[in-house]
Write a structure and sequence with these properties.
With 443 residues, this protein is mainly beta. The protein folds into two domains: 21-321, Methylamine Dehydrogenase, Chain H, CATH 2.130.10.10; 329-439, Cytochrome Bc1 Complex, Chain D, domain 2. It is built from five helices and 28 strands. It has helices at residues 339-347, 384-387, 395-404, 406-409, 423-439, and strands at 21-24, 30-35, 41-45, 49-53, 58-62, 68-75, 78-83, 87-92, 97-103, 108-113, 120-124, 128-133, 151-156, 162-167, 173-178, 182-187, 193-199, 204-210, 215-220, 225-228, 234-237, 245-251, 256-261, 265-270, 275-281, 288-293, 299-304, 308-313. The strands form seven sheets. It has a four-stranded antiparallel β-sheet, with no helix packed on it. Helix 3 crosses helix 5 (423-439). It starts with 20 loop residues before the first strand and ends with a helix.
Length: 443
């Protein structure tokens, strides 16, 4: 529960009605969703972008250099985002102005803002939580007048990456969840660890808090879905035979807690009566990575491996409206493909198109790849490492890219760390790429 029990206004919005709808336009999986008090929806995507939606047409916020994992409204025209580029960004949505307020040393997985709006917390796989505050006391100011670097406190105590954070209602306490299996409790003013609340044994991925009612819910890698009191004593166990838990969202007015897992289910829990009231297979295939409630609590917005955000009316969940019913190139049956095509679908297709135009993907179009200088596609923003290189794409350079891995062949590029170690696999991929990048159509 990112905003703890901050007031959620019940304002009419074309995106908050109790009916099924989708938001389309991203070029990659939806990694996170947040909703402003006025009903705006923000989506973070693997395509390196944030979309802000008042209607079905988004405002695109482009600036991250890698996948965006988390997005958070501070107010309707001010939001924060962070991702695989290690950066925490602040945005003014009305002007698209942005600035990096700071960087971690590894990917950032989650953000939270204190109810008094004075502190933003970021969780990172560098094993720390950072507390960001404006350089001048008070709330975050307009980007065009307050460009001072914020003050930051680093909380160090987890042994592995930190996956989620949440503030108490009074803004004085922070809870953090880690891959080390613990939930730690921190004093926000001093930055000191107060205690270990939970030792789960498996990595803890998600947190939701209602300290007014005395509970914290968490979801873990082993599928554990539990509610504990603020001393760490178990109150309820909602664990089902599905794993891992990847997403959680809470709506305090309706006492509804939504839980998304790696097998594509959304479970809705009545926290007041501590019972499961809905359990819905939301995807045809793939996980639920992101969940958020509409302001009135009637809809649950969901994102996953599909490049579409889906919004389901909770009272009329319908299997005919499952996510992933459209074609996704990287989800095809591998038995129907040649080896070269399989390598492309597994390693390339989630980030790249082969048609003209990069189509808001995480990587540039591969159309006309052979003989093309690296960093030369007009509609894609490259890292300076790639745009300043002297690489020309050929059989030899593509082979070296996947033999060594992008992190070694082009250190500092946006390409994820991956290799194709088999010589024949690389040759088959190159042969397939030579065909489809000339025709502009995958087979």
């Amino acid at each position: 529960m990112r905003h703890a029990l901050a007031l959620i206004l019940f304002l009419a919005s074309p995106l908050s009605a109790a009916e099924f709808f989708t938001l389309k336009g991203h070029g990659g999986p939806i990694m996170d969703i947040d909703v402003s008090p006025s009903g705006q929806i923000a989506t973070a995507s693997f395509d390196n972008a944030v979309g802000v939606w008042n209607t079905g047409t988004p405002t695109w916020l482009d600036g991250h250099e890698a996948a965006v994992n988390t997005v958070l409204f501070a107010k309707s025209d001010l939001l924060f985002s962070a991702g695989d580029d290690f950066a925490v960004r602040m945005w003014r949505t009305t002007t698209k102005a942005s600035q990096i307020i700071g960087n971690h040393e590894a990917k950032v997985t989650a953000l939270a803002i204190s109810p008094d709006a004075k502190t933003v917390a970021s969780a990172s796989w560098d094993r720390t939580v950072a507390l960001w505050r404006p350089a001048t006391p008070g709330t975050w100011g307009p980007l065009d007048t307050d460009l001072l670097q914020p003050y930051v406190t680093s909380l160090e105590g987890h042994d592995l990456g930190v996956n989620d954070v949440v503030f108490s209602t009074d803004s004085r306490t922070l809870y953090s969840a880690s891959a080390d299996g613990t939930i730690l409790v921190w004093d926000v003013d001093t930055g000191l660890q107060q205690r270990v609340l939970v030792k789960h044994g498996f990595g803890v991925n998600r947190l939701c808090l209602n300290d007014a009612e005395g509970w914290l819910a968490y979801g873990a890698v082993d599928g554990g879905t539990r509610m504990v009191d603020l001393e760490g004593n178990e109150l309820a166990d909602f664990t089902l035979d599905r794993r891992p838990i990847l997403a959680m969202a809470y709506h305090p007015q309706t006492h509804a807690l939504a839980v998304g897992d790696g097998e594509g289910y959304i479970m809705v829990i009545d926290t007041q009566h501590r019972k499961i009231v809905r359990d819905f297979r939301a995807t045809i295939q793939g996980p639920i990575w992101a969940l958020a409630f509409s302001p009135d609590g009637q809809n649950i917005h969901a994102g996953g491996i599909d490049d579409v955000m889906y919004s389901f009316p909770i009272d009329t969940l319908d299997v005919s409206q499952q996510m992933g019913t459209g074609p996704r190139t990287f989800l095809q049956n591998p038995e129907t493909m040649s080896n070269g095509e399989r390598q492309f679908k597994r390693k390339c297709s989630i980030c790249h198109t082969v048609s003209k135009g990069s189509a808001r993907r995480a990587g540039p179009s591969l159309y006309g790849l052979f003989g093309r200088p690296a960093g030369s596609v007009k509609d894609y923003s490259y890292s300076t490492t790639v745009s300043g290189s002297d690489i020309v794409w050929s059989e030899d350079t593509i082979d070296a890219l996947f033999d060594l891995g992008p992190d070694h062949y082009i250190p500092g590029s946006k390409m994820p760390m991956q290799r194709i170690t088999g010589v024949e696999d690389r040759r088959d991929l190159i042969e397939y790429l030579r065909d489809v990048t000339q025709s502009g159509e995958t087979k």
